[in-house]
Amino acid sequence: MKKEIEVIIESKFAISGTMTIPEKEGTKLPAVLLMAGSGNADRDGNMKKMKMNLYKDLADFLTGQGFVTLRYDKRGINKSTGKFLEAGISDFIDDGAAALRFLKDHPNVDSEKVVILGHSEGALMAPAVHKEESAAGLILLSGGAEASKDLSALQNEAAFEEMNGAGGFKGWLYRTLKAVDKARKQNAKIFKKIEASDKDVMRIQGIRINAKWMRETLSFNTTDYLNEVDCPVLAVTGEKDVQVPPEHVKRIPELVKGEAEWHIIPGMNHILRNYEGEHTMLGLIKEYKAQMGQPIDPQLFKVMGGWLKRFKG
Predict the structure, then answer these.
(1) Is 221 helix (H, G, I), strand (E, B) or coil?
(2) 11: closest CA among 84, 79, 82?
(3) pTM, entire model
(4) For the segment 36-75, what is each residue's pLDDT rounded down to a tens digit?
(5) Paired residues of 33 in beta bridges
(6) pLDDT by residue (tens digit) across 145-154?
(7) Is there a contact between 43 and 71 (Cβ–Cβ < 8 Å)?
(8) Distance from C-alpha of 236 to C-alpha of 280, rounded to nearest angstrom
(9) Strands 2-10 and 14-22: what pairing?
(10) Cα–Cα–Cα angle for 223, 46, 49, nearest 5°?
């Protein structure tokens, strides 16, 4: 049994969130702050045309393990105030630190036992949040261990390689139109234009983009913060993750100062589902949409459950 309550976190803007609290009256409990991946998904991990309930499902599992949880909408998303397109990595880190302070100060929470769980971009930012407001532990899911600009370049090159290797009419068209060369040049031109600007939001080819976030992402390196982490760390990724190389998870225990362990879950992908096929960068959104309604990989819950049990002591 649990109760679920709506909360407002005071950061630069009012950040709206959901707390889940196990029904243990009069007891201060350990807690987990959930930090989401990139994009404009809400606190549950849902977008308009992609309802994964990723963070709601994680929160439900964690509450079942006896932890209070807090998940929240990014600024400018759903019920949180502010403007999403104007926010950068630094803003999301500040909001994460504000949420962590809120959780540590809550009367139902043992402030000495609060963990940050970050997924994808949230895993990259979690060590930076920990530097700003200390946590008792970190759970890093589908996270990288190098500069974000290098991760972005890896993802782009994987897509370009797929284009070059495509068969049939589509592959012929890519090669005839020299699509890969044009895409590389266009990307370089766009990034150069964004880096030369100080605007929070820019219009590129008629589309408004979050330029501040892109600039800060290109200069952000999670390893700068991992090197200073001195609390226990659990790093988990999936064998089928094509957005972040799975072997990155092995680097994390080598970078942090505190005790750490890593796991690669066989068959699990970046969105924490078991996937039997082989993902493609060009078809990734379609492939993820096909997994809507599927549960989080149970092997992840097994690994997390064991670590959380040891963490509680």
Answers:
(1) strand
(2) 82
(3) 0.95
(4) 999 999 999 999 889 999 999 999 999 999 999 999 999 9
(5) 70, 116
(6) 999 999 998 8
(7) yes
(8) 21
(9) antiparallel
(10) 120
